[in-house]
């Protein structure tokens, strides 16, 4: 539970002028032979340096100063007065997270930037009102449980604490490549679906009208999600003494489930050994999990309304999540989204696609982290299989020359979306694995730290991505394709990826 002395009390005041749119880390196990990753990490630490703070003059910032900047990926609300009323209600709402939690996450991400921790960030492509109602929170529980399973495998294999961050409790809006769409083989063209926080997925003119009241529904569902996750993380649900119970039902009996149980048996033996030696094996780190939530900062009226000023530090925080990221389509250095993010004290992610130039990246780093604060910036690369060696080395070299401190993470999902002959969007497990492998190999070759992975995944037994050990094919996609947007790895595929990564980083296998 967060220290309540960090609770916010002073919301940003006043309406601001609008402008017309212009477009449970566990490391207390018996000592093992150092993994290849640990040896590599210690070797790099001897040469690591931190650049002095980079300070330069910036224009004044306020929670609403983004309204004076060019903006992309914004819905056109027909009723501005109703939008303002919803924003006012959100301004008076309780914060979803607290400053102390955001500061703690920043310190953990700083460790990942030094190779002292690993970041596992994952969850839905876009959260759904209908899925929440259909499953009654079971979908959230299953995704949380899957992230815990994956983190256990990675912790044991890498010998590092794993920072667990969910894409949940706010991931309701999505950037789109086109403002309009049409059903397959249909003439009717409608505004594109932008996520449940903005409009509806049904292909009707009424559903596609942006509705500000959807922000309130998203806020209340996010509140329920965070409450559930806190209960699971701190209520004994992930106690490592009952690690054999931490397994999704449909994964039991599969090769992936059996591999996890092998890890579980080793951990149980380690805990028994600690107890027999008189060592403490019932600390909160063993019985609880530290878990954070994140989403893309896309719908800025929602984000601004949930900004609060910390009375202790005087800093502004976005209380909609512990961590926010700037998408590849909204990372313009002079744009509204970057303007909003530069003034909040939360950890920030930047999606780095193949079109991002070295100069633009450095401009973003200077704007978003002028004091070069470790843990502030996570660079999430998303370039696609077969393109990592073309783009990642130049980005690493540019950051290294500049002296900026960043945490590197790999998003192997967004650059690998394809369409089947029948028009269904999917992703191939082999492409995802290939991008992850190249990401880690490039960092090893360049002497930098691969700090984490960022996945679109679910704990449900969906059939949205092809391949993996179960060899899902295009014909299987219609069996259980539930995502309203992009395809997600299911639990078996996610566990398989975590296992392969763990084995690769510990030097036990090549992927």
From TrEMBL:
Residues engaged in binding phosphoenolpyruvate: 167, 351, 382
GO cellular component terms, semicolon-separated: chloroplast
Alphabetized UniProt keyword annotations: Amino-acid biosynthesis, Aromatic amino acid biosynthesis, Cadmium, Cobalt, Manganese, Transferase
A Pfam family that the UniProt record links to this protein: DAHP_synth_2
Pathway annotation: Metabolic intermediate biosynthesis; chorismate biosynthesis; chorismate from D-erythrose 4-phosphate and phosphoenolpyruvate: step 1/7
Obligatory cofactor(s): Mn(2+); Co(2+); Cd(2+)
Enzyme class, spelled out: transferase
Gene Ontology molecular-function annotations: 3-deoxy-7-phosphoheptulonate synthase activity
InterPro entries, per database record: Aldolase_TIM (IPR013785), DAHP_synth_2 (IPR002480)
Amino-acid biosynthesis among keywords: yes
GO annotation terms (biological process): amino acid biosynthetic process; aromatic amino acid family biosynthetic process
Cofactor note: Binds 1 divalent cation per subunit. The enzyme is active with manganese, cobalt or cadmium ions.
Protein name, entry field: Phospho-2-dehydro-3-deoxyheptonate aldolase
Species of the source: Cyanidium caldarium (Red alga)
């Amino acid at each position: 539970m967060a220290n309540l002395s960090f609770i916010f009390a002073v919301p940003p005041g006043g309406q601001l002028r609008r402008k017309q749119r212009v477009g449970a880390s566990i490391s207390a196990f018996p000592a093992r032979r150092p993994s290849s990753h640990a040896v590599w990490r210690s070797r790099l630490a001897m040469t690591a340096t931190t650049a002095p703070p980079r300070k330069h003059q910036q224009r004044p910032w306020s929670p609403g100063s983004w309204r004076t900047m060019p903006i992309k990926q914004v819905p056109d609300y027909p009723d501005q007065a109703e939008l303002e009323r919803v924003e006012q209600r959100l301004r008076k709402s309780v914060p979803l997270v607290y400053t102390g939690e955001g500061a703690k996450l920043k310190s953990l991400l700083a460790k990942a930037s030094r190779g002292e921790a690993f970041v596992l960030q994952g969850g839905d492509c876009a959260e759904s009102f209908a899925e929440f109602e259909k499953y009654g929170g079971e979908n959230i529980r299953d995704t949380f449980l899957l992230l815990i399973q994956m983190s256990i495998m990675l912790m044991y294999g890498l010998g590092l604490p794993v920072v667990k961050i969910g894409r949940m409790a706010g991931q309701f809006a999505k950037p789109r490549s086109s403002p309009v769409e049409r059903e397959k083989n249909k003439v009717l063209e409608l505004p594109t679906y932008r996520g449940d926080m903005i409009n509806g997925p049904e292909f009707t003119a009424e559903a596609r009208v942006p509705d500000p009241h959807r922000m309130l529904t998203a806020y209340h569902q996010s509140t329920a999600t965070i409450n559930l996750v806190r209960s699971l993380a701190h209520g004994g649900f992930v106690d490592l003494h009952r690690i054999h119970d931490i397994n999704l039902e449909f994964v039991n009996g599969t090769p992936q489930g059996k591999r996890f149980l092998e890890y579980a048996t080793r951990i149980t033996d380690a805990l028994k050994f600690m107890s027999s030696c008189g060592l403490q094996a019932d600390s909160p780190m063993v019985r609880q999990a530290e878990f954070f939530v994140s989403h893309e900062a896309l719908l800025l009226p929602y984000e601004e309304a949930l900004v609060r000023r910390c009375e202790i530090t005087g800093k502004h925080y976005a209380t909609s999540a512990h961590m926010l990221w700037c998408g590849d389509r909204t990372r313009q250095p002079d744009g509204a989204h970057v303007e909003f993010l530069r003034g909040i004290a939360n950890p920030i992610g930047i999606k780095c696609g193949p079109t991002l130039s070295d100069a633009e990246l450095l401009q973003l780093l200077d704007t978003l982290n002028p004091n070069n604060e470790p843990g502030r910036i996570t660079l999430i690369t998303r370039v696609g299989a077969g393109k990592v060696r073309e783009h990642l080395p130049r980005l690493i070299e540019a950051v290294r020359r500049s002296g900026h401190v960043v945490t590197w993470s790999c998003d192997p999902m967004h650059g690998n979306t394809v369409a089947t002959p029948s028009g269904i969007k999917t992703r191939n497990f082999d492409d995802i694995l290939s991008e992850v492998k190249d990401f880690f190999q490039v960092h090893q070759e360049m002497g930098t730290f691969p700090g984490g992975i960022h996945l679109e995944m679910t704990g449900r037994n969906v059939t949205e991505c092809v391949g993996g050990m179960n060899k899902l094919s295009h014909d299987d996609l219609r069996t259980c394709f539930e995502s309203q947007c992009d395809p997600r790895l299911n639990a078996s595929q996610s566990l398989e990826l975590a296992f392969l990564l763990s084995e690769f980083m510990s030097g036990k296998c090549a992927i």
